[in-house]
Amino acid sequence: EAVVSTQSTGVVREGVTLHRMAGVAVPVMSSSHSPPFLSTLPTSRRLLPYRTSTTDREKRLVTPHVQVRGVRRKEVLAVTGDYCYHHYMQDNFNDKGWGCAYRSLQTLCSWYLYNGYASSSVPTIPQIQEILVELGDKEEKFRGSRQWIGSVEVGMVLQKWLKDNGTNTEYRIQFVKSGEDMGMEGGMLAHHFKTQGTPVMIGGGVLAHTILGVSYHPLTGDTQFLILDPHYVGSDCIATILKEGWCGWKEVKFWKKGAHYNMCLPQRPPS
Fold it and tell me: Considering 84, 95, 209, 229, which one is annotated as catalytic?
């Protein structure tokens, strides 16, 4: 496990976003600090921001997991706040077969944007590649390529993008040696969603996904994972996405036994 942090101090950039908490619209001032209504909430409180999901200006689904069956069970700890569902083939960009981690990263970025920690648009895939070249992580030939990225690159880009938005943050990388060991990560993930509330990117083998929450029983250790799948291709129809399981609960067997996994766990910026 690694902890990566940034020490930069950015200027406060103020703007107004609209945050919905329990179906109520709440204006939030965007800055390098936690939104005031979040900083005063106990960390154990679970928030489900929308009673029904909606779409953004580009017709992407916003916070679709709130319509998943069982998400309001008492043992569920899930993402706090809004985000957009980014997946294959959006933005008139063909990334089918290689862009899943980029799309998961975009979902993570959208969480920070929607919850008042950023003001610039979610980076496109070419912009993500540009950032990695600028950081010296990739060579020039990486621009315009179809090369995959992993959880470490996701954390690096997220951190740099937030720094450019005047927000200091950290991310943690959690290594899991095999998919069958993911069941032992339920407690860690429950703690993450309880204290941080941010979506988690996970990569293993040749696939990446976004973890939005867990159903975790501390006495038995039984864990289910609330997954947002970036491999979806099609229109942003909530009925289709729920029916076909592109956003929904997965058992431990969902993770491949022969693959190791890395999770990127973004931290909520300090207040």
Answer: 229
Distance CA 23, CA 252 (A): 32
Is the pTM for the entire model greater than 0.85?
no
**Which of 17, 22, 51 shows the shortest CA–CA distance to 36?**
17
Residue-wise pLDDT for 49-81, tens only, equals 433 457 777 789 999 999 999 998 889 999 999
Distance CA 52, CA 86 (A): 18
Q: Which two tokens stand for residue 84?
A: 């957009």
Residue 164 annotated among the catalytic residues of the structure = no
Cα(first)–Cα(last) distance of the chain, in Å?
A: 24
The answer to whether residue 231 is catalytic is yes
137 is catalytic: no
For 185-203, b/e burial (b = at least 16 CB within 10 A) is: bbebbbebbbebbbbbbbb
- For residue 270, the one-letter residue type is P
Give the Cα separation of 112 and 161 in Å (integer). 10
Which candidate in 84, 100, 109, 264 is catalytic?
100
Check 33, 191, 231, 260 and give the catalytic one.
Answer: 231
